[in-house]
Amino acid sequence: HMGVRAIARLDDEAAGLQRSLGSMAFQEVQRGFDAQGLLVGDAELMHQACLCCAGTEEQTRVKDLYCELQLRAYVAIFQIGDDVSQLENVSRRYAWLRRILRNYAEEHAPAFPDAWRMGEELSRRFAHTTRDHLSETMATRDIDVGHLTAALADTLAFEAQCDKKFGIVRRNGAAVYESSGAPAESFVGSVSCAFEPYMAVFISGEQAKFEALVRRFRSEPGDDDPSLNVLASSTDLLYQFRESLRQCAALSTGQAMADLAQVFAQSLSNYARSVLVHALPRISSTTTAPLDALRRACLVANTADYCASAAAQLEQKIIEKVDGPLREQVTFAASREALLSAINSSIGALVGGVDAMCAPALAALTDAPWHDVQTVGDQSEYVLLIASAIEAATSVARVSLSGPRYFRSYCDKLASRISERYMTAIVQCKRISEIGAEQLLLDAQALKSVLLRVPSIGADDDAQPPPTYARIVAQGVGRIEALLKAILVPTDPADALVGRFLLLFPAAPRDVFRHVLSLKGVKPADHPAYLRVLQAHQRQTQLDKQSEVDKQSEVDKKDQLDKPSQITSDVPVAAVPSAYATPDPRSSSMPVHVTGRAPASAPLVSRTSAGRANEHSRFGSTAEHSAHLSPSTHHAGQSQTTFQSTTYANMPDPLGITSGPSASNEQCSDIDAQSPVLASLAANATATRTKINENLRKFMSTMRRP
């Protein structure tokens, strides 16, 4: 209808009236505020004027006018370059806005419709202006990490407060107004995005903060946390990690978060090496309270385990938050390895503490006059001291260690350490008589019983030790018993001592043999003679082993020769046609050929006298040989037969040997000269061959009859 001149004229008049009304409304609002933004007009009249220009361009002009009037003072106060506009004073900016919003709610709100959300609009304009100010300030001045962190924290708090004040929430990943569900624009990131280009400074600041924490934990160890059974410093460090991650997640989930994850991992590694390992006690035989020191070692192990578990959770949380392409950069593998090393060091310190508690008893073993022992009695007193120290320390470890796997590791390492220390104490003795060795054997059995009870100390039931642990104990004590049993053998004759030593120590370690000689009182000058005997025995043992190997090899070869084989030769043999292939009696020739070849590894059967002997060895017996090559075999269908053009009168001997006793005897003469057994086998083969040839001639004459 706009083509109708009257309607077009009316439309133009309406648009002009609307523009005129909007202009009047704008002027009314403009007259209602002075140059300082104070309300001087009638709020109700201004409200009506705003309703008149709602939805037009004048509405935007009214909003711009009001926000400009209110923020004019803000721009004047926080001029770029002044001290008040620096990062350390960013909280004053947000305090200024809170005052302006309070004044708006009390005085200016009645002048504007609620649907305009003028307070939210004013706050958003303020955020954009503040973002530009902070960006320019950080670009032109050196940034202090502490000021940057504080300003970022204040900014994040301001953004969260604005969302809460104006009822903006996130639903299904989108910002909406809580009351109506209409789409909204969140304040989160509106100001803090200015800090993102300078997040490297933030990351550096966080790293410096964590390094300072680790140094403080090392120099000023705090009180332990009895409720968690860990060092209190670990909970403080992890709390700082969570706070730092929260700040970073609110600002950026990009490269900054991936870099922060690396800082966390590095800080945990430093904490493990500088604090946990450093906190391990050094226990010696003079330590006044060894059990308290053992509890400290258990506490360090628990702390390392707690940090490793927290590191895995922190890693997973960061992977969930960080941007997809950066997830591969998030790894705490190095920190977990450092924490695991701290756990191993803790268990090592725990075992070392038990070793130190057993040191006086082992020293008593070394200093005892074992060469003067006359009788074998009950277990020695030093064994009771070792058992008492192990039981006390293991009771502490059972209660203090948080994980059963660490207690099992402690038991395994303790069994190995005590066995080694016991062996060392015996080797350090001056001289041991045979009766003394018997007493030490009895003590070794008592020590083995003590070690086998270690896994059940402090437990509710006396269960059997785990098989792996029992093997560790058996191996450790077994070496001790082998050494003592070697000492029991007299030195004269030397062959008896060496033979017994080789039975106990098949590898014949020279250093162990020297220890045996020294403990038996053999002078060092006489050691070379015994070592020569040991070397001679070893050489003879090697020769005996080689002889056994050679004998076994001969037996295997003989078994291989006697083993029957099933092969089929390419040599043409006569065959009787089966019922399925009846020959034509009018034909003057009949093709005969045996198909099928011997395996590639089996040679063709030779027709010499030696070949016949080989035939017998391969086929096992003469009867079996005949059954394999006779015409009846082919007639039974056990070999596939085809026929080619060969005249019956010219057919060769089936075995490839000229018939007649003279030829057979001549060809087998060399076999007769070799062995009676072979001669007998050859004779049987000859008889069988003669019978086969006779049957063949009868068959051929039958086939020639008309």
Molecular structure report:
This protein has helices at residues 5-32, 43-52, 57-77, 90-108, 118-140, 145-165, 199-219, 232-251, 255-276, 290-321, 333-367, 381-400, 404-427, 434-452, 467-488, 494-504, 510-519, 527-562, 609-619, 622-629, 631-635, 661-667, 669-674, 676-704, and strands spanning 168-171, 174-177, 224-225, 230-231, 593-594, 641-642. It is mainly α and 706 residues long. The strands form three sheets. Strands 1-2 form a two-stranded antiparallel ribbon. A two-stranded antiparallel sheet has the order 3-4. Strand 3 (224-225) and strand 4 form a beta hairpin. Helix 3 (57-77) packs across helix 5. The radius of gyration is 52 Å and the shape is elongated.
Task: Summarize the model shown.
The protein has 706 residues and is mainly alpha-helical. It contains 24 helices and six strands.
Write the layout of secondary structure elements.
Blueprint (H helix, E strand, L loop, with lengths): L4 H28 L10 H10 L4 H21 L12 H19 L9 H23 L4 H21 L2 E4 L2 E4 L21 H21 L4 E2 L4 E2 H20 L3 H22 L13 H32 L11 H35 L13 H20 L3 H24 L6 H19 L14 H22 L5 H11 L5 H10 L7 H36 L30 E2 L14 H11 L2 H8 L1 H5 L5 E2 L18 H7 L1 H6 L1 H29 L2
Antiparallel strand pairs: 1-2, 3-4, 5-6
Helix pairs in contact: 1-2, 1-3, 3-5, 4-5, 6-7, 7-8, 7-9, 8-9, 8-10, 9-10, 9-11, 10-11, 10-12, 11-12, 11-13, 12-14, 13-15, 14-15, 15-16, 15-17, 16-18, 19-24
